[in-house]
Amino acid sequence: MRTDDDGADPVDTRLGVRLAELRTEHGWSLGELADRSGVSRSTLSRAERAEISPTASLLNRLCAVYGRTMSQLLSEVEAEPAPVVRAADQSLWQDRASGFVRRSVSPPHSALRGELVEARLSPGADIAYDRPPVAGLEQHLWVLEGALDVTAQDTEHHLGTGDCLRMRVWGPTRFRCAAPEGVRYLLAVVRP
């Protein structure tokens, strides 16, 4: 992970700036955003100043408030994507606290509704989202290596290598690594 001279991750720095811009565009104070997202004012402030690297759960809450997918938000801090994205140029983001690593294989584009994301969860990783970033988001999850337990709409699905789960996301979801060696999966995301 690259860092600036002051030790900050440049993606976290650009992400913080974009989060502050979004809040300003909506005309919200930190307190108003805290009320809408359920995230404390201090955490929001620290994320906007890039004093912390936001977790996947925190970004999901903010995406829900702003009506964006996580990939859309992350793409807004990157350059306009080219038609061909070389492996070395695919943006990587990680939530160190949960053991979640996310590679944007085909970044979102304003003219397209779909994107591909490669995800890795460390052994024992457990990520819960209290709401989808966009209601009715279509997801196709294909396990490439390992095992994953996914809970969506109160139904738990145990997925092994090669299994694929198709779902529309309306409420809370949970992703738990069910393999001692971790799990790697591909997620196709389609905005409604």
Automatic annotation (TrEMBL):
Residues 19-73 form the HTH cro/C1-type domain. InterPro entries: Cro/C1-type_HTH, Lambda_DNA-bd_dom_sf, RmlC-like_jellyroll, RmlC_Cupin_sf, TransReg_Diox_bact_type. Transmembrane segments: none annotated. Keywords: DNA-binding. CDD domains: cupin_XRE_C (cd02209), HTH_XRE (cd00093). Pfam families: HTH_31. The keyword Disulfide bond does not apply. It comes from the Bacteria. The keyword DNA-binding applies. This is XRE family transcriptional regulator. It comes from Streptomyces purpurascens. The lineage of its organism: Bacteria, Bacillati, Actinomycetota, Actinomycetes, Kitasatosporales.
